[in-house]
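Q: Is it fine to ask for two folds in a single conversation?
A: Yes, each is treated on its own. Send the first.
Q: Here.
A: Result:
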Amino acid sequence: MKINARIIFITFLVVVIVSASSSLIFFSLTNSILENRNKKNTLNSANDFVFYLESVIGKANSEFNNYAANTNDDPARIDSTDLDFIFSVNEMNAINPVFINGSADLNFSSNNFLQFVKNNPHVLLFEHKEDNDKIVYYGVVLNETWLNKAAEKIRADVTLIINHVPYYYSNSIVNNKYLSRIVNAEQELRFLNNFDIVSSNNEFYAVKYKANTLLSSKDLSFLVFNIDYDLQDFLDTMKYIVPVIIITGILMSLIFVLLFTSKFRRQISLLTEATSEINKGNLDVNVPIITKDEVGELSSIFNEMTLHIKNKEELEKEYSNFVSIINRNITLRDLSEEVLQKLLDFIGLKFGAIYKVTDNEILTLKSIGIDRENNLADEQNSLIKNVIESKKFYEATFEENFPVIRSTGLEVKVKFLLLLPVVFSDEVIGIIELISEKYPSKSGKEYLRPITEQLAVGMKNAMSYDAMSNLVLELKKLNDEYILQNEKVKGQNEELIKLHKEISEKAEELEEQRERAVELSQVKSQFLASMSHELKTPLNSIIGLTELIDKDYETLPKTRDRVKIVLRNGKKLLSMINNILEFSKLESGKYEVTEQTFLISEFLSEIFSSTDILANEKNLTLTFKIDGSKNFIVTTDRDKLEQILLNLISNAIKFSERGSVSVLCKNDANNLVVKVSDTGVGISKDDKEKIFSEFQQLESGINRKYSGAGLGLAICKRFANLLGGRLSLESAENVGSEFEVFIPDCISEELDFAAGSKFELSNEQGRVGSKFTQNIISAKTKNYHYNSESNDENNPKILIVDDDNDALYTVAEILNGYGYNLNFATNGVECLNQIEILKPDLVLLDIMMPEMDGFETIKQIRNNKEFKSIIVFALTAHAMLDDKHIIEQSGFDDLITKPVDSTSMQLKIKQVLASNQRKML
C-alpha cells in the first residue's frame, strides 16, 4: 500500500475511533449522571416519606391525646383530618366504636378485635391503656387517598406492600401499567435493608421502607418509586446523533488530508528516489528540501546520513591499515611508536603520547612532540587517573586560560586535548593522549573508538610477547634453582614418612574410642530395658488389682471413682514404659520379625475395645471401618502392627479435643493400608519430620499442654520399616492429621462378610462419661463448685488450679471432709477470673499449664493491690522447680510437690488457714 493511501486510511481509522470513543464516553457519562441524579432524588423522596409518615403518626397521637384529656366531650364532635378511628375493646374482645371517620376505608364485618386486625391490614393501629385498665385503640387508615397525598408531598409515587404484595399505590390510573415493575422491585428488595435502591431499564427507581405497626399481624412496608422519562428520551436521541458525528468527522478529515499533505507527499517521493540511487552505489546524491516540517527535517538528516556513510567508508580503509599494524608480533614499545604516528597523521595533529597502565603506576611508552618522563606531573596524572576510573573518552577544547606543554624547548598553548582509555576485559591497560595547538577539523572519535578495542588486543599480545621473553629467562633461572630444591625434597620425604606413621597410630586410637562408644550405647539400651521390666512388674500388679476392685460390685461408688483414676494413670504409665522398652530393644538391635496369620476384622475389634474407653472419656466419636465388602487374612508380625495402631490411635485421641477419630483399613492389590484420621490440632509443615524423632515433642516448657515421652511415633516408624512398609503423614494446622500405614504383600486371601453387610465399629451410640468426668465438667461451670461435704459459705475457700482433671480430682478427694469450700480452675486465665468472683482464702496453683502458666499467674496476682495478700501455694511435679528458694522468689508462699503427700498437704493447709484466721480476728 502506498504512503498516500496509507495516510488516508490511517486518518479515516483515527477519526472513526476518536468519534466513536468520544460519543460513547459522552453517552456513558451523561447516562451515569442522570442515573445518579434519579437515585439521589428517589432516596430523598424516601427520606421525605419517612418524615411525612412520622408526622402523620405524631399528629394522630396528638389528636388522640387531646381527646383523651377531655373525656367528657362528645365523640361525635371530633373533627380530625389525621385520626381515622377510635374504639375500645371489652373483655370478650368485642369492639365498641367511639369515633369513625366517614371517609375511612374500614371493614367492620365482624365485631371481634382480632378479626378486625386481620380484615384491616392497611391501618396503623395504636394502643392506649387508661387508668382503669381499659384499653382504647386508635389509628390511621392507609388507603389510596392517603398515598396520593403522601406522593404529592414527597414528589414521588408510593405503594403500600402487605405480605410482599402491592395493596394500594398512589395515582393508580397512571401507575397501573407499572404494576409488574413494582412487583419485581419488591421481590429484589425483600431481603435488602431499608433505603437500598433498585432500578429497571434506567427509568424506574424504587426504595423500600419497612414500617413496624403496633398490632398488625401482617408484614407491612412501603415502596417509594420514581419514573424518569428524560433518560429514555436521551438514549433515543443518541441513536441518531452518534452516526451523524462519525460520518461528518470522516468527510472533514478526508478533505483536510488531501488539502494539507500535498507537499508532504511530494517530499516523500523525493526521498524514495534518492534512496533508490544510494541503493545503486551513488553516494553523491542530495535530496532537495521543499517542506519545513518533520519530513523536510528527515530529508536533511538523510543527506547528512549519506555524507556519514561516505566518511565511514574512508574510516574503514584506515581501520584495515591500522589492524594490519597491530597484528604483527612486535614489542610493546615498537607497537606504541607505529600506532601513535598513524593516529596523529590521520587526525592531523602534531603532539601525542601512549601510556601503559599497571596496578598503581602510569608509564610513558612513546611520546611525539611532548617532553614526558616516566613519572607524570601531578595535574596530568590526576586527569589520566579520572579517565582510568571512568573508562570513558575525555575531550576538551579551550577558549582561554590555555594549558601549556613543552615541545623541543618551546612552550605550546593547548587548544584541544583528547584522552582515550585502552580497555581489555573491563580493565584499563593503556591511555592515548592527543594534543593540538589548534582546533582540529575532525574529532576522529568514529575512527578512534574501534581502534582502541583492537589496540587493547595488540597491546595485550605485545605484553605477552615481552612477558614470554622474560619467562624464558626466568625458566633458565628456575631450572638452576630446581636442582637445588630437589635435594631438599629428599629430606622432606623422610619427614613425611614419619608423619604418616604417627597418623596411623592416631587412627587406631580413634577406632578404639568408637568401639567403646558403641559398647556404652548398648549398655545404656540394656539398662533401659532392664529398668522398664523392673517397673512393669509392680505396675502390672497395681493395674490388675485395681481392675478387680473396679469390677467388684461391692466397691463403694466413691472408691470406684478413685480406683478408675488410679487405673487410668497406671495404664498411661504402663504405655510409656512399654514405649521405652520397645525403643530400648530397637536401639540394642534385638528385634526380630515373627509372622502370624490372622483375620483383620478380629484384629480391629480387639484394638477397638482397647481404645474405645479413651475416646469416650474425651467425648470423641471413634469409628473403625474396612473399605469394601470383603474381609481378608493378613500374614505379618501381629504384635508390631498392633503396637503401631495403638500408638497412632492413642495420639489421635490425645491431640483431639472435639470431633472424631476414624480408622480405615483396605486391601490395595494385596498390600495392607490403614489410615488413622483425626480432627485434632494438626501438625505444621516444619514439624512433620521432627515428630518422628526420638524424645521429640512439638510442645516444650512449662506451657506444654500434652504429656508423653516422645517415643510413640518414632517406634511406629521403625516398626513399619521393620515390616518392609512405611508410615506417612498428611496434616494441616487446626484441621487435623491423617497417618497412613502401608505394609506390602501381606494379604493372602479375601473372605466374604455376611450377605449385604460391612465391617464398621463405632462408639457414637450409647457413649456415657464416667462419674469423675461429670464431676470435673460440673467443676467448670459458672459456680466452679465441687460437691464437697461442706457447703457452708463461712468455711475457708480453697481454689485448686490444674490442667489435669485427675490431679484436680485427687487433690479434691484428699481435702474433702475437712470443712473447706473447694473450687476449681484449669488454667491461669480461669484462676484470675475465679479470684475476682470467689475471693478465696488459699490458692493451690499448678506451674505447668496451657494458655497461662503458674509463674505468669502469680505475677498477675501479686501485681493486683486487691488480691496480692491471698495465700498461694505452688503445686507442681516439675523436677527443676523442687527448690523452695525459686518458688518463694517467684511470689509463692509455699510449695506442694507431686505426687502429693496427703498428710503433709493437709497439715500445711490447716496451719496456714488457721494462721490467716487469727490475723483476721
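Q: Second one now.
A: Result:
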Amino acid sequence: MTCLKSGHTMIITVFSVGFFSLLAQTLLYRDFLTVFDGNELSTGWFFFSWLIWMVLGALLAGLRKISGPAVRKYELLPLLFPLMFLLQKYLLLNARVICSTGEYETLSLTTLLTAVFFFNAPLSLFNGFLFVCGVEWLKEAKVPASAFYIIDAFGSFVGALAVTLLLYWRMAEESVVLPAVAVICGACFLHRRYRSEYVSVIAGIAGVVMLVLLVVGVGTRWQEADAAREWRRVLHEDGCRGVFVTPQGRYIYGNYQGAFVLMSWGGTVESLPGEEEAAATVAANLAECPGAKNILVVGMGLLEECRLLGAEPEVKRVVWLTPDPDYGRSMLEVIPAQYREGMNKVEIAALDVRGYLRRCGSGEFDLVMMESGLPSNLTVNRYYSLDFFQEVRRVLSANGVFSLGFPGGEGYMGKELTAIGASILNTLNAVFPSVVLQPGIQSRFFAGPEKEVTVDPAILAGRLNALNISKKFPSDGVYTLFDRFAVTEQMRRYRDAVAAHEQPLLNRDSSPVLFVYGIFFALKKMGAAISLPVQLPGKMEVMEVLIAILLVVTVIAVLTGKFIRRFRGTDYVTTGELFWYVFISSVVVLGIDLLLMFDFQIDHGAIFLFFGLINACFMLGLVFGATAAARWVDAVGWGNRCFFLLALIMLFFISILQTILMKELPLLYYLPCFLAVGMVGGTWLPVAAHQMKKQRFSDRKAAVWLEAADTAGGASGGLITALLLLPLLGINGALTALALMAGSCVFMSGLGGWHWKTGKFFMWASIPLILLFSSVAHGEEKKGNDPFEFKNYFSETVTMSKIEIKSGKESYIVGKLTLSGGDTVLGYVFSTGKLAPAVEGYGGKLNLMVMVDVSGKLLDFKVRKNRETPSYLAKVMKRKGELLGKNIFTGLTCFNGDAVTGATYTADGLTSALNQAGHKLASLLNPQGADTEISPYQDQTSPPPGGPRDIDAEKYRKLIKEKKLSSQPALYWQPAE
C-alpha cells in the first residue's frame, strides 16, 4: 500500500513539473514581448533558445556526478521552479538596462540574439535537467521510462489550459503565478511520509500561503507595482495611474508631461491630446471621400481620428476595430472624460477585424481607414494580403475609398522599404483599379473600387472647404500632404521595384512575401550586415536545394547504418538513425504546428489568447499518441519497420492537412487539428525508446539522447518553417517541404531495415521520381502558358500565328488571330499563366485562355487550370456573359452589380486574371503608350525637380567608416534654377 501510494505521489510530482513549465513559459513569453520586438525573428529565437537550453539541461543530467544526488532528492527539485521563473522574469524585463540599451533604442542584432539566448536560460535549462532526472527517479515506482514523457505532457496540457482560462478571465499575470506555485508546493507536501519530511511540510504551508495571497489580492497589487516600475523605466518619471488587462495584452496608463499616455508591450498606444496629427489624417481621408456616411476605422491609437470623424455632420456611423478586440471598450473606461466626448457616433466592435468584415454586407461602408504598422510579423501581414483587400473591396460602396497607412520614407528609401511599398502597391493594384499615394514617413495609399481617386491638391483642397474638418486643418495644408515631387519619386521607386522582380510581389495569406521584406527591414534596423537580394529564390529553387540536402544526408545515414548492421545484425537500428528519426519527426511536427498557428491567425486573428489552449490540445495529442505507440511496440516490437509505418502515417496526415487548410475553418475545428498534430508527433519517442531499450541503453542515457534529439528538432523546425519555408514557399509549399523531410524517414527506414526486393526497388526509385517531379513542375508551367494548346478551339476561317514579345529578360508567347488568307489582325489569344502568374482564386492559381479583339474587348475565355470548388466555379461561369464585350486592356473589368454570392474569391480571382493579363498584354503590344503616365499636376507651374546632384564620394566614405553616416546609398535632389 505504501509503495502504491508513493508511486502515486511520484506521478503527481512529474505532473506538476509539466504543469508549471508550460504555464511559466506562456507568462515569460508575454514578458518577453514587452521588451523585445515581437516579430517572428525574435519570437523564433525565443523558442529556439528555450529548446536549446533544454537540450543542454538534458546533456547536463547525463553526467552521473551531477544528476545522482538530484535523482535521490528529486521530489524537492520542483521547489526551485518558482525561483528560476522569477530569475528569468527579472532578466527579461531588465534586459535593456543590463545591456545598456535605451527603451526606445533599436536593439542591435547581436545584442538581441545574445540577450534572449542567455536570459532565457534559467527555467528552460532546469526543465531539461528535470526531464532526464525524472526518468530515472520514476524507476523506484516501477513506472516505465516512457511514462514520464506521457505524464509530463499531460501536466503541460492542464497547465496550458489553466493559463488560457485564467488570462481569458482577465486575471493578472502575477496572480496566475500564485496557484501554479501552490501546485508545486502541494506535490512536494505529498512526500512528507517518505523522505525530507520537514522540507515537505514547509512546502505545504507555503502552498497554502500562496492561495491566501491570491484571495486577498496580492497578485493585483504586484501587477500594479510592476506597471509602475515599467512606467518609470520607459518614461523616467512617475505618473502611472493604473493598469488594465485584456486576454491579449496588458495596458499601462498615466500622465506624462501634460498628456494622457497609454502604453503596451513597451511602446505608446495612445497619447492624448493628439488632435493636430489626427486632423491631418482625417482631412486627407475625407478629401478623397468627401461624401462618406459610414466609415470603418481599423488600428490601435486612433481614438482622436474616430472623434473627429464623428464630428462631421454628414457622417452617420463610425465603426472602430482594433487587433486586440477588447482594447477599445476597456480603454474608454480609464481615459479622462474630456476624451470620451464626441463618441456618440462611434461604435467599438469587440471582434477580430477580418471576422467582422465577413459579417458585413456588400457596400456597407463608404470609407475604410486602416493603420497597421510595419508588416514585420505574420499577424500584421494578414492586413496587407490580397485576400484581405478583396474583403475590403466587397464591403466598400461603389464610390467608396480604402485608405491604408504603411511605413514609407521621407528623404531616403532603401531596398527593403521600397520592396514593402512596392508589394503593397502591387497587391492593391490586383484588387482596386485606381490607387494613389500620400507620401511621407508614414505614407498612405488611397484605393477606389470604382471611383477614381486623385492626388491633385487643388481638387482635394476644394473638397475640404465644404467640410467641417477644415476648421481643424486648413484646406491649403493639403499641398503639404501631397507634395507632387515626393509623390512622383516615391511611386517611381515602387514601380521600378515591381518591374525589377521576376517573381511577383503579390502578398497573399497563403504566401506572405511581404513578411520577408519586413524581416529584412527589421534586420537592417538592427544593424545586421545583410541586404535584401534583388531576386528572392523561387519555390522550385528552394525545393531543389532542400531535396539535394535531404538526399545527401539520408544516403550518408543509410550507408553508415548498413556498415554498422553488418556487425550487429540485420534488425539493429543504430543510434544515429534513431536520432535522425526523432529529430526529423520533431522538425516536421513543429513545422506543421506553426503552419496551423499561422492559418489560425489568418482566419481568427492573433493567436495570443489561444496560445495556451492550442498548446494544451497539442500536448494532449502527444499523450494519446505516445500512449498508443508505447502499447503498440510492446505488442509488435518491429524494428525499422515501425519507423517506416510512422513516416507513411505522417505523409498521409500532411496530405490530408493540405486539403483542410485550403478552406476557412471555424475556431473549434482547429482544436482537433492541433490534437492530431500532437498525436502524430507523440508516436516517435516511445518507439525510439523501445529500440534503445532493446540495445541495452540505460534509462538515463536513452532519456538524454531522445530529449536532445526531440528538442533540437523542435527548435530547428520552428525556426526553419517561420523564417524560410513559409515566407518563400507559402503554406502548401511549406507542407510539401515537410512531407519531403518525412519522406526521408521512409527512404532510410526502407533501405536500412528491409530486405524485401520490392521495398528496395521502391526506395531507390524515389530518387529519379523526385528529380522528375522538379522537371515536370517546370514543364507544366511552360505548357500552361502556350496558347497553341487551344488552337482547335477556333473556327477554320481564323488563322492563329505565333508571335513572341520580349520585355527585358522575359519573353511572352501570344497567338495573333487573322482571317485565313489575309493580314488583317482580328485579335489575340493568350494564357494568363505568365502574364498574371500570381493571381489565385479560392483554391489556388488560376489559368485562363482568353480571346480579345485588337482593342482589348473580351470575346471569350475559358478556365483551363484551376483548383476551385466546382460548385463555386459554376456560379461564376453562369455570369460569364457580364464580362464579355468589356475592355480588359484597361484593367477595370468586373461583374455587373453585386458580387457573386458564395463565390467571391473565385470571381475576384477570375476578374483579376483577366485584368492583370489584359493590361500587361496591352503594355507589351504598345509599350510607349502603356508607359506614358499623365501627371495630375499639369496645370501647376512649379518647377520640376533637378537631376541628381554630384556629391563628394570620398567624403561620405570617410563618414561611413567613422560610423557618422548611414551606409545606405542616397540620392539628393536640388530645385532647378
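Q: Anything structural to flag on that second result?
A: Two points. Confidence is low (pLDDT under 50) at residues 754-759, 769-786, 929-949, 966-977. DSSP finds 35 helices and 18 strands in the chain.
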